[in-house]
Amino acid sequence: MVARLPFADTVSVVNRPSDSGGRERSVPTTLQVVTTEPPMQITKPFLTVHDFNSLNGIQATAARATASISTASVQEPNRGDGALKLTYDYTQGETGTSAAYVRMNPVLPLRGNPQELGMWAYGDGREHWLRATILDGNGAAHTINFTNENGFNTRGWQYVRAAIPAHIK
Question: Which residue has the higher pLDDT, 62 or 27?
Fold first, then answer.
């Protein structure tokens, strides 16, 4: 239960007995309400743009590196039966900034007015920068960031999101 105590300036979690034995249970996390506004209602479901269970229309490209893609079955996929695996080698190219890309051909259209893109990504623990290029209605390219530079340093699955700026239509 969340309550504001009469003498407190912040909202805190209050532990009250909730079973017939009257036993208190531990609360593993703390909750603080930042706003008094009700949560925004999500009225439309998430739209899956691509499930990556097939490589049709997908290719790997690279700058100052080598890159390839394959399908990968994983022990615990977060969605679907498999995943797209991007394999890269930054030691094979010239010095300077290297990059490996997954390209969709044809480009996948985003219907409506999406506010963000999200995906599950499997990290190898190294520092990577996950980004995407999206095209607006006029065909102009815009880069959006799923992470900060060197910000994807997780081992294992992590859900990453990239905001789509409101001016991109």
Answer: 62
